[in-house]
Amino acid sequence: MIIQSLLGVVLLHLWQCGASSIMTKDLKVLVSSNDFPESALKILQEHFTVLQCKYLNFDEEGRTLAREELLNLIPGCSALVWSSNLPISKELLDKAGPQLKQVSTVSAGYNHCNPDELKARGIKLTNTPNVLAPAVAEIAVGLMLGAARRFTENLDQVRRGQWEIGFDKVLGQDLRGSTVGIIGLGGIGQAVVKRLVGFEVARFIYTGHREKPEGKALGAEFVNLDTLLSQSDFILLSAPLTDETRHMINETTLAKMKKNAILVNVGRGDLVEQEALYNALKNKQIYAAGLDVTTPEPLPKDHKLLTLPNLFVLPHIGSATVRTRREMAELAANNVVNGLTGKPLITPVQLK
Ligand SMILES: *[C@@H]1O[C@H](CO)[C@@H](O)[C@H](O)[C@H]1NC(C)=O
């Protein structure tokens, strides 16, 4: 009796799974990359018809080609797995059609996803926070060290074969004994504090909308922006880009920083007003900067920022590790599976 009813439950379950994947197989999901991790593709392919577009290349020519391909593939899709920083425009959404239910961005930031327009159209948005925090935090620490120890100038010496000799080499700044100020103590900011503990930092301070219990647990003190700017030796930008945070580092805020301050940005390029940063670095008003994000991306190779010896730049590689990219892709895929099969989204973005 028990065995029979168990069998019944199992059969029913199998039937439901089969039926739901048969029913969802005619839903189309577009992945905007052709080097999306295999494990994540499999998750999608189990349920849906998956279309893939050439990786949306950064160079203009590649971008135009991929754009055509994308616009050809997008009509009729139920979800987009968005693995590029190409903006989700109205045009793109119109082209996709009214059956589009979800955009799943393979990133933590979603400023490029046109959240207002998605909300207006009732399209759900999911992102991949948390899974990328450790990798981005590692890059943030790398940028702090790279800028403070003047990797740009020092690497240049090595490349030229002209090492400065003597006691007074290109001297840098210590993390040891410093005050580290974090603008935006979210997952990434917290992960940075955890990683910096071993560097004997004297004091962690942070600012944001409100004091956070995680801050207390990490021994970081909540302060206002002005205090953070005027007291920090290292300033980390790990806040999302919003209308409120855009250009929050500008001429005025740079002027409040210490002369030995090192600014690190792992958030978004537009948190910083770049012309003002250029001037501050050029005039040695602050000591150095380390950027993983810029405006635009890529930064043209003849951009004047790249003439600065006290700037250390990376090409937006914060989350670019094998493990992290795989985890991001799988989370993005599972979000779509849940979204299109009526289950709760794993990491929804609350659209305001
Ligand atoms: C500079 O940033 C501060 C703080 O984010 C802001 O209050 C101010 O309006 C900004 N100033 C300019 C000129 O953008």
Polypeptide structure, described:
The chain has helices at residues 2-24, 38-47, 60-73, 90-96, 115-121, 133-148, 151-160, 187-196, 213-218, 225-231, 251-255, 274-282, 322-340; strands at residues 28-31, 49-52, 77-82, 102-105, 124-126, 179-183, 203-207, 220-222, 234-237, 262-265, 288-291, 311-313. The protein is of the alpha/beta class and 352 residues long. It folds into 2 domains: 2-129 and 323-340, Rossmann fold; 133-313, 3-Layer(aba) Sandwich (Rossmann fold), CATH 3.40.50.720. The strands form 2 sheets. Strands 8-7-6-9-10-11-12 form a 7-stranded parallel β-sheet, with helices on both faces. The termini are far apart. The mean pLDDT is 92. The structure holds 2-acetamido-2-deoxy-beta-D-glucopyranose. Residues 247-248, 250, 252-253 line the site of 2-acetamido-2-deoxy-beta-D-glucopyranose.
What percent strand?
5-15%
Q: How would you sum up the major sheet? A: 7 strands, parallel
Give the tally of structural domains: 2
Residue share in helices?
A: 40-55%
From N to C, what is the helix and strand string? HEHEHEHEHEHHEHEHEHEHEHEEH
**SS-based class:** alpha/beta
- What is the assembly state of the chains in this entry? single chain
What is the strand tally? 12
Indicate the CATH topology of the largest domain. Answer: Rossmann fold
Q: Walk across the major sheet and give the strand order.
A: 8-7-6-9-10-11-12
Instruction: List the ligand species.
Output: 2-acetamido-2-deoxy-beta-D-glucopyranose
CATH class of the largest domain: Alpha Beta
- What separation lies between the terminal Cα atoms? 53 Å
- Regions with little confidence, pLDDT below 50 for 5+ residues: none
